[in-house]
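Usage

Read records sequentially. Each one opens with the input sequence:
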Amino acid sequence: MIFRSRLALVAGIGLAMLVACATPQTRQARFLERGKRLLASRDYERAVLEFRNALQVNPRSAEPYFEIGLVRLQQGRHADALSQFQQAVALNSKHAAARMKSAELMAFSEHMKSVEEARQQLTVLSQENPTDSGVLDALAVVEARMGQVDDAMAHLDRSLAQSPGRVASAIALARLKAGRKDIAGAEKVLLDSTVKNPRSANAHLALAQFYLSQNRLSEAEARTRTALEIEPENGPALVALAVLELRANNKGAAERTYARLSALDGKEYKPLHAIYLFREGHFDAALTEFETLANRDREDRAARSRLIAAYLALGKVAEAEKRVSAALEMHPKDSDALFQRAQISLRARRYASAESDLHQVLTQSPDSAHVHFALARVYAATGAHGRQRAELQEALNRNSNFLAARLALADALLAANAGKTALEIIEAAPRAQRGLAPAVASRNWALLATGDRARARQGVDQGLATARAPEFLLQDAILKNLAKDQAGARTSLEEALTTNPGDVRCLRLLTETLHAMNRGAEAEKHLRAAAESHRQSAPVQHLLGEWLLARARYPEARAAFAAGAAADSAYIDAQLGMADTDLRAGNLAGARQTLEAILNAHGEDNRARFLLAGLELRTGNQSGAVAQYRAILAVDSSNVAALNNLAYYSAADNPDTAIKYAQQAAELAPFDASVQDTLGWIYYRKGVFPSAVRHLQTAVGKEATPLRKYHLGMAYLKVGEHRLAQDLISAALREEPGLRTTKD
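and closes with the structure output:
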């Protein structure tokens, strides 16, 4: 025992000496090496932690910044990557790789000033390293972006002259030639590359991909097989072969090729066979493979994420939750698992839980565009639209190429009547995205919102020329309705509904179109038929309820909303419809019960609170309504309607506080008639009658409701405009006699 103790002591002393002898350079090198291994396995956040550990050893070292930049680049966070590369260059101006990466990223900027700066940097690099073909290739890319195609081709020719076997240069030159419609020239460059590199699988594969782009499938397959003869385990070549086999509808061969791919060493190839099986509908077999891959390495977050996505796609929520819980038991701060749990909570409408997890993820990954996007979905679901827009903007700030976030932000702005801003957001998309159908459709909606029918018409025609998709047909119908062509609108809508009979937007517009054609009975018949054939569609049942509610047919409306709630118990709109119907029908107890049930089940839902505020006003409980508006603002401080209503109903007791809320609403919605009316009435209460008249005139000019006329008439009395006052007050009372007894 004494011997073992002494041995342990000696070992401990030896270990301490080894640690003490480790130089800062050695320690940093170890952190960098571990980080590079994690990056190779795509464990990005843990890789970043190792690189940051290296920085702690030497904060003035450029290499850790460069490595973090490579991580961000692989994550698609280009702005962050550029920042890291630039920091590396600032610390070491001779770091050629960082300078190169920085220039390459700036080359693809939407701002030509950045592209020009990239060209200047690469020009300097090419002068410092005249034989570096990689620099020449990058310079050619920049010049091509700037429209200097001749210069770009000259640099690529120079690159190939000094490195005849450089396949990357040949590919870039062939693309430029193809872009100029010089198909023969492009083919020759790639053929020459295979002659100069007869044993290069990549050279043959590049030619194969060129043939595939020209739909010359037999030649593409021949070159792909040549590449595989040279390198039987060439992953990109096997992927190309699988694509060709699918194009030939040879699914058996494609499956065997995907099986070969999955047997390769690279992690990126392991799940491809399972993904193929899943896409082909072989769900059980695919799931088995996903589970095997996830079980093989419990630390492989990508494998776990694929498995959870498959579970959720197949409705196996319990299995997904079990996997996430197990991961969090092992690593409570696992950001991927937290994000996945948030997504599951979002699907289950557990919004508070989802929000909590997402905020926890943000503490680890504050620059994650996808986390901000998920938070926006939470806020949209709970009616916190101001926060929703803010999070979508944050997502775009972190990744300007995030098209889904851009489209969602445009939609949110359109819902807030900010069509001009929505149009600016869409038109700021990267050039490559602007021609995509979703972006074209979103731009059309923004143009319609801003009243630019001519450009909207061009956009719709552009979309329909590509595909007669329901989105473009709906927009076409809207434009035809605006042009008083109801018959044409009906035709477009009916065509859209043949593709998607349950499209609520098309159904709604069709009923409105038929109603405008004095065919209300036919419109209702369409709605009832849709509701009958889509009994399990809560939105369709809800649409029928809205139609009936607008016609004060309360029992039928409530039955339709109840059918929607029965079809999907978590579809809050149907429950809100039931409460709204009860409220209008005078069943205040029933409305309150439904609204309180919604709030108990789903937490903060601003729509429910708005209805509850209306209910309080119906019962004369103005302070209760004010409490509801305050609760809404606690969740969404920029909610214009809540600010406006809180100001209006606070004016009698506390006009000084009320004016602050009204002014805040006016800053957010300066052209809103309700906001102008509230501001004017508060100034009236405060005795500032000229200001009251100015705002009330604006409100009446935008939308002359009886109450607004009455308010303006009362203000005119105070400034001595008795004739105008009498005319307005008389007109208001003729339209709504009950105003005579109003306390306002």
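Summary fields computed downstream for this record:
- Residues 2-21 form the longest helix (20 residues).
- Confidence is low (pLDDT under 50) at residues 1-20.
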